[in-house]
Sequence to fold (709 residues):
Amino acid sequence: MVDAMTLPQEEQEQPQVKVGPTRHAKIMRGIVTPILGLLAVACIVLGVLNATMWKPSAQVTASSLVNGSRYVVTDPGVLSLIDQRVKITAKTTDASSNVCIAIGSARDVAGWIAGTPYTRITGLSDWSALSTQKAAAQGTADQSDSQVALQDSDMWTKTTCKNGTASLQIKGTATDDSTNAVALIDFGDAKSATVSLDWTRQTLPDFAMPLYFAGGLFVILAILAASVFAMPPHKRRHREAAAVADTGTEPGGDEAVAAWVKDAEANASRNEKASTAKRKRRRHASHRSGARTQVPDDQQPTIIDPAARNLVADQQSNAGPSDGAAATEAAKNSDSEATSVISADELQAYFARLAQEQVQSDTESDTDDRTEGAK
Amino acid sequence: MSRRFSKIAAAVLAVGLMIGMGGCEGQLPKVASSTASPSATPNLTAAQEKKIRTQILKTLDQFNQDRNTDELGSILSGPELAIRTSELDVARATGNLDRKTTIPTDLAQTVISTESGWPRTVFSITTTTEDQQSKRLLVLKQDSAHQNYKLWGVARLFSGVKMPKFEIASLGSQQGTDKDSGLLMTPKEAVAEYADVLQYGANSKYASQFADDDLRTKLSELTDQVQKAMELNKGTQEQTFTPVDDAICVMRSSDGGDLVVAQINSEWTRSAGEGRESQPASDAEKALFGDGKATSIMKTTYVNVVALYIPKANAGKQVTAVGSERQPIKVEAL
Fold:
């Protein structure tokens, strides 16, 4: 009843609202939407630029000048810092001195350089420079007889030696892997040298896709700002109810109207019968367990579960026409708690149908019992 | 209201531009500290082991053909250096290299140590030879970082012997020491006691600790035969076995035991009685003795390599010799 009252009220209020766009709508459509649109365009343009002009280069080369130590060792993980494929180049200022590069495990390299100072390559200081650090290897230098030259040692997975400039390519395969390996560079007697690492990136970082995504979001926001967000807030909130009142074409609105009509009918019929019904009977009926199971049935009559039915209670409720009337009354009484969507006539017809089904199911269960007893 | 919106818009624009401009090369990558413990990895891959072993065996084959003993030290060390030198000396004298010197190039199994320091060892078990001789247990040893792996010891496995199980090459096995505990006895004790068993045979107080094996049986047969012959001409014989300090390589098996390869030197002194000369006892001894003038006493020095499996304590098992090598390296008349 309260809902029904609000409809005419709103209809009365409707003509008071000014015709034409509000200030809020003007801001949303005139300022916010263009800004969002610009942002969307900017994001997409930046995305395109990142995918083309500003695309990160596949080749990353970082180098560093080292001096004062014979050995240079990369820290574990440096070789595979940017990609598994890396080319190590060592170049001495003295073109005649021998340069060796060996790839091995960190502990083999540590064993080889034990007791001597060396230069660590710890990583990248920027995109074109390696960060280095002076260090002294633990342990004591190997003084044993029958020592072999670095390139002749069994320990390295890969090694190369050249005069002046030496370079070594790691392919990043299972047998030629840079993940757990470190590079040992031996400059011999050379005073200073340059070490460079040259990675070839197989997978480039994709900065364009997030920008395209952001651009898409801004487009959606711009559309929303121009439509939904531009509406007056109160109108947006009661949009559905208003639509029902105005047009009545929406399916949700149809149902609501139908529900109101049926509710009104049910209330009217209940008021009529309430005066004639016997209170004692009603209470008595409501105490029956059968009545309780039947109460929801009159609201949702389509659900019939023969297995869950209390047959004793059903029997009692079907004992006579007066009992049936009591059940009907009890069902109607429950209307005060929930809204009925079934008319009194329909309900009567349903109970008649139910009584028939019960007689059938009773006879069926009797025969079942007999056959089971026979077994 | 419009001011608030333009502020928000400006902020969004600034963030958008920062993302766009910052995206030129991406964030500078940092070296992640490695989580895997480096000590748990084997020192060599199976491929590296194969390369090293093949190189050694190829060089050794060349030296065998050339009967070159001068450069054996570049690929051999420990007892194998002494044994192969003697074998090539014998081959030079007799013109025939003993069949037992054959080392197959195909492997049945390789056991690579995970030792991070030095010395490092690799135990490799070959297949049987082409003429169906027993499998060889090769011990490759790297003494220090600046040296390469050398063939340290070769033991011919006894036929039908059951070898302990080891971790596969890609996992690596723990390298043991001569003081390993938790075993029936420490490797050092086992070698010393086995030397005693070789010397005294069944009379050794340690005899019950060791299962019967081919080396023990054959040595005692030989000793008995020589003893009988010596007794006929009122001569005497004495053989002493001495473990060589630090000439021991130990690898832990996956069942908790130790496989030990060790050098035991022995001296065999034979004194002929009644003014007779004591002669070399075998072709190898004869070749090594050469044109030497025999006297009544002959002392031969042997290098023995024994491979012992020491089970873990309280397993109810005996120490078992699984392979051996024995070669006279010096024959002298006193």
